[in-house]
Write a structure and sequence with these properties.
Blueprint (H helix, E strand, L loop, with lengths): L2 E7 L6 H14 L3 E6 L14 H12 L5 E3 L12 H11 L4 E7 H6 L6 H7 L1 E5 L6 H15 L2 E5 L8 H9 L10 H10 L4
Parallel strand pairs: 1-2, 1-4, 2-3, 4-5, 5-6
Bound molecules: adenosine-5'-triphosphate (ATP) and magnesium ion.
The site of adenosine-5'-triphosphate has 18 residues, from helix 1, strand 4, helix 4 and helix 7.
Length: 200
């Protein structure tokens, strides 16, 4: 049975922290494919103005081009309305009825997931793969994992890896201060941000 993961994010911009956890997931879970899914209009981030979906998608495409098991989907950016994770998972469950589906998230996602629409359905459709992240306590994560598995009868895989303290928010802030962020993103992404002056 094929093992396919969806990795959702705003990717504004995609950075080495994202690639780090994607490679860890690929290796530790022996996945056949990770589908990076840049969000269209994200339900939780409607306040801040995001870089355009096309540029976020393009940066993900550039960042993932060296690994053939990494693919990028334009499913959410092409949606007219808000993109909900459960709908995306339904779409891929229909598209790949014989695959076992995974959804990759950082710990902040696990802590927040009960605010996501139709969380019950999410646990029915996929195995949730959770990575620790600076700002989230390991014991809180384990407690939350147990609580959710019990409540939704779902499967949560917690991958406790060394932390990499990188976030898109921090990258955007550094850029607005004129700082160099080339150590946080792949070269092609760095060049794209510079050329298009995405976060100046
Ligand atoms: P922002 O600061 O704009 O929210 P972000 O760095 O959190 O950006 P997202 O696109 O929101 O990036 O994240 C997509 C997914 O990747 C989320 O599940 C998030 O938890 C996870 N993630 C991002 N950076 C890391 C990191 N350094 N370590 C572990 N998980 C991460
Ligand atoms: Mg985030």
């Amino acid at each position: 049975m094929k093992k396919i993961a969806i990795f959702g994010g705003t990717f504004d911009p995609i950075h080495n922290g994202h690639l780090y956890i994607a490679y860890e997931a690929l290796y530790k879970l022996n996945l056949d494919e990770i589908i990076f899914m840049p969000s269209g209009i994200p339900p939780h981030k409607t306040k801040r103005k995001l870089a355009s979906p096309f540029f976020r998608y393009e940066m993900v495409r550039i960042a993932t081009k060296n690994e053939k098991r990494f693919t990028v989907s334009d499913y959410e950016i092409n949606k007219k309305n808000i993109s909900y994770t459960f709908e995306t998972l339904q779409y891929f469950a229909n598209k790949y009825p014989n695959a076992s589906l995974y959804f990759v998230t950082g710990a902040d996602g696990l802590m927040d997931i009960e605010n996501w629409k139709n969380v019950k359905e999410i646990f029915k459709l996929c195995n949730l793969v959770v990575f620790n992240r600076p700002g989230n306590d390991k014991y809180d994560i384990i407690f939350q994992k147990r609580k959710l598995e019990e409540k939704y009868k779902g499967n949560i895989i917690f991958l406790d890896i060394p932390l990499l303290d990188i976030s898109s928010t921090n990258i955007r802030n550094l850029i607005s201060q004129g700082r160099n962020i080339s150590c946080f993103v792949p070269e092609g992404v760095y060049n794209t941000i510079k050329e298009l002056k995405l976060y100046d």
